[in-house]
């Protein structure tokens, strides 16, 4: 069982980056701008709450972790209240609300990957109940992990659709919880970008695992199906080709770099955590596709070993993380093709490993 790192409070992590909402808040369309500002205000309130309140004890898991999840889905009924009214538990049948059912299924898909592939019992490796709230706020265009639970907005129905639609978004946000209980990566600069990237990596692996997709056949997109039909884009992020996920008059252009040559230095978004995460994202894509087969197996195992191995510092930069992936690859698979592939991947994106 992996112990939780101490000394850092859980962070507030959203799937739609602040730079996208900032762009929308300046849109010529007054209604779109107002909705974006409202989402930013709700995000800011949650972020402040996370920072100034003492961390409440997590809902305890069972004494002996079960191989079955404990899912608890709540309905905020479009109010800004958490967790809201409980509408589906672990053994309850499906409801008439497709959003509730998708959230329930996504929590289960995340639990399954971590347990069946990596032997991890829920987010904390001790059977922590998986709590989610749907229908949060009115036309709230985001989803987040607040250190204790998942929260999903319905989107505005225009630029963003229901946030339970992409299972990788659910997996991404829950993985922020896994990071919280393992390396506890600080949410700023390169360590924050690693926090975001690890969430993307396991989010996309949850999707691929559920679909039974090999690395070569996957789309490597985060948030595919989330953007409205008139948006010029395919997803929030692309691990295969960072910087190409969207190019829209309203949303702007995807700013993610694929290599260190284009690393973005900024004071916004906690030092560009949602932007520069494209670099380690692309490294994982190159690693997984070089190995071939199922990305959640050898490539995912190396990333999981690095995250949970106890050596990754909360303030780790890209180079430290990369060096530890080489150590993890060598420790588990020896000096063969896995080590060669991960070394090549980091070299291709310009991150030094020595």
Q: Give the overall pLDDT as a whole number.
A: 91
Number of alpha- plus pi-helical segments: 10
Structural class: alpha+beta
- How are the strands of the largest sheet arranged? 1-5-6-4-2-3
Query: How can the largest sheet be summarized?
Result: 6 strands, mixed
User: What's the count of strands?
Assistant: 10
What fraction strand? Answer: 5-15%
Give unreliable regions as ranges: 1-8, 51-61
Radius of gyration: 19 Å
Question: Helix coverage percent of residues?
Answer: 40-55%
Task: Summarize this structure as a short list of keywords or feature phrases.
354 residues; alpha+beta; six-stranded mixed beta sheet; two-stranded antiparallel ribbon; 10 helices; 10 strands; globular; disordered N terminus
């Amino acid at each position: 069982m992996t112990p939780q790192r101490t000394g850092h409070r859980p962070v507030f992590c959203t799937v739609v980056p602040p730079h996208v909402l900032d762009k929308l808040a300046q849109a010529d369309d007054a209604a779109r701008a107002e909705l974006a500002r409202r989402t930013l205000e709700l995000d800011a309130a949650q972020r402040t709450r996370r920072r100034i309140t003492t961390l409440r004890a997590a809902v305890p898991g069972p004494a002996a972790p079960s191989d079955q999840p404990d899912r608890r889905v709540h309905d905020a009924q479009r109010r800004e209240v958490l967790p809201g009214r409980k509408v589906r538990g672990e053994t309850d049948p499906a409801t008439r609300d497709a959003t509730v059912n998708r959230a329930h299924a996504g929590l289960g898909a995340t639990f399954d990957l971590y347990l069946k592939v990596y032997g991890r019992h829920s987010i904390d490796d001790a059977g922590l109940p998986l709590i989610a709230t749907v229908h949060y706020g009115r036309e709230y265009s985001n989803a987040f992990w607040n250190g204790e639970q998942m929260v999903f907005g319905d989107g505005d129905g225009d630029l963003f659709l229901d946030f339970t639609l992409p299972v990788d978004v659910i997996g991404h946000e829950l993985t922020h919880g896994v990071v919280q209980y393992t390396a506890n990566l600080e949410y700023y600069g390169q360590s924050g970008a690693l926090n975001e990237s690890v969430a993307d990596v396991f989010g996309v692996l949850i999707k691929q695992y559920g679909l039974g997709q090999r690395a070569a056949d996957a789309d490597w997109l985060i948030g595919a199906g989330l953007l409205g039909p008139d948006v010029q884009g395919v997803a929030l992020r692309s691990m295969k080709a960072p910087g190409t996920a969207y190019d829209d008059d309203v949303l702007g252009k995807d700013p993610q770099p694929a290599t260190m040559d284009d690393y973005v230095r900024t004071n916004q978004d906690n030092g560009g955590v949602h932007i520069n995460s494209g670099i380690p994202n692309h490294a994982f894509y190159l690693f997984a596709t070089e190995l071939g087969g199922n990305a959640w197996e050898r490539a995912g195992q190396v990333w999981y070993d690095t995250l949970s191995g106890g050596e990754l510092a909360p303030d780790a930069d890209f180079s430290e993380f990369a060096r530890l992936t080489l150590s993890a690859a060598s420790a588990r698979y020896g000096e063969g093709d896995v080590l060669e592939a991960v070394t090549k991947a980091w070299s291709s994106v310009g991150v030094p490993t020595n």
